[in-house]
Amino acid sequence: MSGFSPEWLALREPADVRARNADVANALAARMALREHVSVVDLGCGTGSNLRTTSALLPARQSWTLVDYDANLLDAARKVLIAWADAAHEHGDGSIDLTSGSRAISVRFRQADLVEGLETVLEPAPDLVTAAALFDLASPAFIQRAARVIARARAVFYTVLTYNGIQHWQPRQPSDGQMTAAFNRHQMSDKGFGASAGPTAPVHLAEQFELVGYTVIEGQSPWLLASGREARLIAELVEGQAAAVAETGAVDARTIERWLKVSRTGAEVGHVDTLAVPPPEGELRLD
Ligand SMILES: C[S@@+](CC[C@H](N)C(=O)[O-])C[C@H]1O[C@@H](n2cnc3c(N)ncnc32)[C@H](O)[C@@H]1O
Fold first, then answer.
1. CB 102: neighbour CB atoms within 10 A?
2. What is the pLDDT of residues 255-268, one digit of tens each?
3. Residue-wise pLDDT tens digits, 145-162
4. SS3 of 122, please?
5. Residue in 8, 70, 136 to alter for ligand 1 test, most ligand atoms within 8 A of Cβ
6. Does residue 220 line the site of ligand 1, with CB under 6 A?
């Protein structure tokens, strides 16, 4: 179990879809447009939300490998993807062939811990390595390692919804800044990869891919949540944030309790989408 439930991932999926940066998405689509087929590895796939949105940017024939260390999420991914597709065919080995609109998408599922097996899951080298809401959990050292192994594969890299530390709550409260600062510190604790990059992850991603010679395109992808549409998501964010802040000991219990009681009508949570494309042959910088 990873601590990410299928219910939580389903709750955030519509907000994730709306938040994605269109310019970065269009740049990926343009980069891939001339291919007939694309092979993709999705790191930390959860229930497959990234495939459901990113496949629309890619050519008509696609082969995806969905990687997660949580077997329950991989099982959920298979079911949710079969329900999502226009048509689905299951194979005996657990892989599935999906049709979505004009796209034929074959999907394999791979249970692996990225900390141990990142290099292995990127063999054979795919055309595209992607992830959603993953890299803020990772350490700066893992981000550096990912940039180097992806560059060695000369794969395109596209990751969306990396938290960048920005929060705006409506109505505003005097303690919002203190709560956000403590939450961001909590986001930098160890989430399985060593101390996380947390809200600095987008900067590390851009830096590390530029260091290996890639061209990086970034865009903001904030959640813009309104209480009518996303009341439950806002409520769960508030609760999760209060619990995380309490663990830091950086904010006194009364302040947290008061902050928790305020009914929020809206929230902005900042993210960044990152596309990194390899340089022409021979210009990689991998000493
Ligand atoms: C925030 S969820 C995002 C899931 C999915 N990409 C989405 O956008 O809905 C992070 C995912 O990364 C997976 N994960 C976290 N650490 C991992 C690791 N070390 N190895 C493999 N998967 C990991 C979790 O199980 C979870 O599915």
1. 7
2. 999 999 999 999 99
3. 999 999 999 999 999 999
4. coil
5. 70
6. no
The amino acid present at 195, given as its one-letter code, is A
- Supply 53's token pair: 């949105």
Copy the structure tokens of residue 113: 């811990």
> Which residue puts its alpha carbon closest to atom 23 of ligand 1?
44
- Provide the token pair at 129: 């390595």
* DSSP state at residue 199: G
Question: Which amino acid is located at 190 in the chain?
Answer: D
- The token duo for 251 is 């904010």
Please give the domain boundaries of the chain with CATH numbers for all domains.
6-164+195-224+271-277 (3.40.50.150)
Q: Which pLDDT does position 78 carry in this prediction?
A: 98
pTM: 0.97
Pocket test for ligand 1, best of 4, 40, 67, 110 (most atoms within 8 A of CB): 4
Question: What would the pLDDT profile of 96-132 be if each residue is shown by its tens digit?
Answer: 999 999 999 999 999 999 999 999 999 999 999 999 9
